[in-house]
Specification:
This protein is α+β, with helices and mostly antiparallel strands and 287 residues long. 35% of the residues lie in helices and 20% in strands. It folds into 2 domains: 84 residues, Phosphorylase Kinase, domain 1 (2-Layer Sandwich); 181 residues, Transferase(Phosphotransferase), domain 1 (Orthogonal Bundle). The strands form 3 sheets. A 6-stranded antiparallel sheet has the order 1-2-3-4-6-5. A 3-stranded antiparallel sheet has the order 7-9-10. A two-stranded antiparallel ribbon has the order 8-11.
Length: 287
């Protein structure tokens, strides 16, 4: 996994710091609400990833309850495409989640080098739909499916990263932590139209994001991205993408139509489940 620069003013544990039985080795990435470190489980003798939830989130009783609720929900997920959650440690500096360490290349890195081969892009999309089908079956919506959150491991497996914005549709106390409906959450270019305007989301929102991802894998371009963030949001909600086949003639008409189906502005006109989308993708990619 590529090491990224730390966010300024974020305290970084020194090498060989300990969080419970886990050794903290080096920071991998940092975001607005959490930092991720590479670590080592000294009991089971295996590398792990350690996700530190920022203190301002952890110290809020409501926020902490919701974070834990989402963690328990994510821990139920069992699929090779979904990163495993092993443990959860409470400290005075915030909560720590212990997860499977994924090593490889982010899809973002690959796309920075250009479009992917059609067969490779289809394989990635299939695996993502398989993982999403499991998550959606547990009532979980990812809400931030983008190239940076997809990894291709050194063993050539596909992994979905960062369920940090996950929404638990079965939560018994309202919305996910810091992600109430009506609040813009997620990466702008990866959003669905309903997500972009702050409406409630369901699994069909992830399918729109998958459509954007598959479009970019095949064409090298995000379908709605603009350097102006507001314009990107407008494009997501109003603009019709150039068909994939128009940009890449080697893409079949069936596959191009499938992507347009995923990218329909109206969730009622998209595939209604990841299973339905997976079946349709298999049919479209056989032609």
């Amino acid at each position: 996994m590529k090491k990224r620069s730390a966010v300024p003013d974020v305290p970084i544990p020194p090498p060989s710091a300990k969080i419970g039985p886990y050794r903290v080795d080096q920071q991998i990435s940092a975001g607005a609400k959490a930092e991720i470190y590479q670590g080592f489980d000294e009991r089971l003798r295996r590398p792990v990833a350690l996700k530190h939830i920022r203190l301002e989130v952890s110290k809020d009783p409501t926020g902490r309850k919701r974070v834990r609720q989402e963690a328990r929900a994510a821990a139920r997920l069992t699929h090779p495409t979904i990163v495993k959650l092993y443990d959860w440690i409470e400290t005075e500096d915030g909560d720590w989640f212990v997860m499977e360490l994924v090593e490889g290349r982010a899809l973002r890195e690959l796309l920075d080098e250009g479009p992917l081969a059609i067969d490779f892009a289809i394989r990635i999309a299939r695996r993502l739909l398989e993982g999403l089908s499991v998550a959606h079956g547990e009532g979980l919506v990812h809400r931030d499916l983008k190239p940076a959150n997809v990894m291709i491991t050194y063993d050539d497996e596909i992994k979905i990263l960062d369920f940090g914005l996950v929404k638990n549709l079965r939560a018994d106390d309202g919305e996910s932590v810091a992600t109430q409906d009506g609040v813009l959450v997620g990466t702008v270019a990866a959003m669905s139209p309903e997500q972009a305007v702050g409406y409630p989301v369901d699994p069909r929102s992830d399918l729109f994001s998958l459509g954007s991802l598959l479009y970019e894998m095949l064409t090298g371009k995000s379908p709605f991205y603009d350097e102006n963030t507001v314009q990107t949001l407008v494009n997501i909600c109003r603009a019709t993408q150039v068909p994939t086949r128009t940009l890449v003639p080697s893409v079949s008409q069936e596959l191009s139509d499938f992507i347009d189906w995923l990218l329909d502005k109206d969730p009622d006109r998209r595939p209604q489940s990841a299973k339905q989308a997976l079946t349709a993708l298999k049919i479209a990619s056989r032609t």
